[in-house]
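FAQ

Q: What does a record look like?
A: Structure on top, sequence underneath. For example:
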């Protein structure tokens, strides 16, 4: 083979064993402090997964309405409870020190006193009740990995998953460290019992101003 043909052979196609193979680019790693500074100055919210910063998908109108409905209903009904409960919106970050993970739930409730990981009171570590409104893009994550992350928090007792396109709310209650009981309510005229905070929400209040499909 002459020199010109040899050069041509080397340049042919991506299967050439002499072609340069570039390793995939790994995502940039951030410290927890760098993440918090980016969140403070940024326009969008992100999750922090052990050094990786992941953007949170933008929520649709029904998602936002349900989130506000649940937060308002919880705040109202818990006023009558002799225990002190504090309701937080979807701007409050939860931090899991064991996994070095920071997450944003849609609604959360703390009993008596919030406990923060940091002096700036940004990273909450003791949620009792966590609510997630399911969307098409996040429902598998909310049911799977995100739930498994939350389970690592000793204070966490109840998980509420709310469908936004049809009337259905699923609850998971921790009876023992590794034993969770589930319950599903689909009737808009019914109530949703919440064992962790000893109260019940009206399904009509959860879905107020939201048009949902019948199941």
């Amino acid at each position: 083979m002459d020199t010109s043909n040899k050069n041509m052979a080397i340049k042919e196609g991506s299967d050439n064993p002499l072609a340069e193979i570039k390793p995939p680019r790994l995502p940039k790693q951030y410290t927890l402090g760098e993440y918090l500074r980016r969140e403070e100055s940024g326009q969008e919210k992100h999750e922090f997964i052990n050094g990786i910063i992941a953007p949170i998908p933008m929520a649709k109108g029904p998602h936002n309405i349900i989130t506000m409905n649940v937060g308002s209903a919880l705040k109202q009904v818990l006023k009558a409870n002799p225990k002190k409960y504090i309701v937080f919106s979807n701007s409050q970050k939860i931090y899991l020190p064991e996994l070095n993970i920071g997450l944003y739930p849609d609604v959360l409730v703390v009993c008596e006193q919030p406990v923060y990981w940091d002096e700036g009171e940004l990273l909450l570590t003791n949620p009792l009740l966590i609510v997630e409104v399911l969307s098409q893009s996040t429902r598998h994550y909310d049911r799977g990995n995100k739930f498994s992350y939350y389970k690592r928090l000793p204070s966490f007792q109840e998980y509420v998953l709310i469908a936004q396109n049809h009337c259905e709310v699923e609850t998971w209650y921790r009876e023992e460290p590794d034993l969770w009981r589930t319950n599903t309510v689909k009737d808009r005229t019914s109530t949703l019992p919440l064992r962790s905070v000893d109260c019940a929400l009206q399904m009509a209040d959860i879905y107020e101003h939201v048009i949902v499909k019948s199941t």
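Q: Is there anything notable about this one?
A: Residues 150 and 193 are 21 Å apart (CA to CA).
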